[in-house]
């Protein structure tokens, strides 16, 4: 493959992943349910956690699954096209979720999509992510801290499994996820972050 053709393939995979990742399931599902714009509810985030604040657990679950599966789909479809493009499509899907063109580049925080991407790249690492998340959540009852720790651990697990390229991409995704959680990090540092199950 020539350099021009290789570059075109990389850009196509990135764009494909981005467009798939930018599908705002939280916005779509809540509007279909007649609940209005989820961005005007709670934190204003489009993810499952904020959808849950509407009191509709089914919609929150559907949003979680949709946001995860778009990451998985981007990886698997790109891999079927060309194995080397799977990680590029993964990066595109994550960027699409965080910065969707349809919502003026104001998207979610990426936890579900991160897990979905791991399912596509290396299911064992997705299980490790969930296990770490559950362990930290059980110990601290902080959902945000659980996601931060699990995302930071994922590149290391991939590296230990002999997947340096995947580990590099996961590292980039983890940095972006931490950046999107900057407000949560500040609240964690000041002790004002809400805990799982906390009311008010």
Class by SSE composition: mainly alpha
- C-alpha termini separation: 58 Å
Number of distinct beta strands: 0
Number of domains: 1
Helix content percent band: over 70%
Radius of gyration from the alpha-carbon trace, in angstroms: 17 Å
Sequence of secondary-structure elements: HHHHHHHHHH
Specify the overall morphology: globular
Write down the oligomeric state: single chain
Biggest pleated-sheet summary: none
Number of helices: 10
Residue runs with pLDDT of under 50 for 5 or more positions: none
- Chain-averaged pLDDT: 93
Q: Roughly what fraction of the amino acids lie in strands? A: under 5%
Q: Would you write up a description of this structure?
A:
This protein has 200 residues and is an all-alpha fold. The chain has one domain. The chain is built from ten helices and no strands. The mean pLDDT is 93.
Short note summarizing the structure:
Helices cover 72% and strands 0% of the residues.
Which terms would index this structure?
200 residues; 10 helices; mainly alpha
How would you summarize the topology of this molecule?
Elements: H1 3-21, H2 25-32, H3 48-52, H4 57-81, H5 86-98, H6 111-121, H7 123-140, H8 143-160, H9 164-180, H10 182-190
Helix pairs in contact: 1-4, 1-5, 2-4, 4-5, 4-6, 5-6, 5-9, 6-7, 6-9, 7-8, 8-9
């Amino acid at each position: 493959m020539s350099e021009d053709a290789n570059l075109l393939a990389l850009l196509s995979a990135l764009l494909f992943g981005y467009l798939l990742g930018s599908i705002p399931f939280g916005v779509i599902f809540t509007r279909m349910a007649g609940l209005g714009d989820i961005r005007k509810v709670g934190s204003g985030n489009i993810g499952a956690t904020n959808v849950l604040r509407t009191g509709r657990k089914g919609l929150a679950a559907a949003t979680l699954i949709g946001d995860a599966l778009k990451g998985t789909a981007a990886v698997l479809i790109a891999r079927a096209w060309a194995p080397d493009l799977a990680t590029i499509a993964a990066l595109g899907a994550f960027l699409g979720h965080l910065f969707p063109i349809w919502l003026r580049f104001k998207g979610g925080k990426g936890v579900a999509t991160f897990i979905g991407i791991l399912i596509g790249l290396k299911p064992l690492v997705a299980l490790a992510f969930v296990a770490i998340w559950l362990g930290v959540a059980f110990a601290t009852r902080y959902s945000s801290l659980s996601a931060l720790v699990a995302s930071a651990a994922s590149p290391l697990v991939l590296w230990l499994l002999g997947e340096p390229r995947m580990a590099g991409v996961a590292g980039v995704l983890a940095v972006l996820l931490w950046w999107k959680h900057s407000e949560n990090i500040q609240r964690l540092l000041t002790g004002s972050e809400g805990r799982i199950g906390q009311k008010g």
